[in-house]
Amino acid sequence: MIWNLEFHAGFVKLKTVSAGPANTMGMKVLLADEYGFCFGVERAVEMVEESVQKGETVRTLGPLIHNEQEMKRLATEGVATISEPVQITRDETAVIRAHGVTPEVQKALEEQAGKVVDATCPFVTRVQRLASRAAAQDRHVVIVGSADHPEMIGVKGYAPDHAFIIKDETEVASLPRLRNPMVVSQTTIKAKTFFDTAEAVKTKTDDEVEVINTICSATRDRQDAARALSGMVDAFYIIGATHSSNSVKLHAVCKENCERSFLIETEDDINPDDLAGVKTVGVTAGASTPEWLIKRVVERLKSLGADEEKNMGLK
Known about the structure:
Number of strands: 15
Oligomer: single chain
Number of domains: 3
Structural class: alpha/beta
Radius of gyration: 21 Å
Strand order of the largest sheet: 13-12-14-3-15
Largest sheet: 5 strands, parallel
Number of helices: 9
Distance between the termini: 29 Å
């Protein structure tokens, strides 16, 4: 079965159908209602492309987003990645990636580069401001997330003497007694992890705990849509980088209901043997996965015999 697809901001329209042999003939492909580029990532990519179109020499501090394939595409447009501010020159444009940076790093970029474009995701900026406000009030800040994630490193920089980063409730015991604590989160973690940890933090203080859910709406929407679809399919493909936090979390969410869930980076990672006996396969993608890459995965499934695709409209 061969069909043509039109892609439109987050969903796919089925157009024409014709026959073709494959070992998984008749398999249905279902796309989650929410997937792919989130607002923050799309905004960051657009900001970089605008600078390129202006003829600027663009350098991003660290990969702009967690997707190697999209970074390679940007590289063909002249965008290069640097690892520290000292590598930028006055005739170049420095871009702060979607994950954000510490105030010290931003200052260093402003001193080194001819121009600085701040592509920090607005959801991340909110967490930075909350941490800074709490520190100014001499309050402790508990940030639920991965301590080595660029976003968390940047956020902690706004409250270096007041913030503690813990991955989940199992690390609450390591915290000291807390003073009027605020609990926030990495924008891409699972909601259950955040709320369970926030509840556990209450054992570390006699003061009121201010809990602010800073998980971005795109993360919540993608996880909810994937969870709903995972109970309706025999196999599930999550398209995203293995070092992308939100993609890894999506994979974990899908495996809650669909054991045959696979995190893949490109269409080449699809193993036809994994689809043996599969009647329906779900597809979703992390917030850093571009639309053109999602299309390639769907096309690969089509070549394996999928005869119908539709967006599930799941929230």
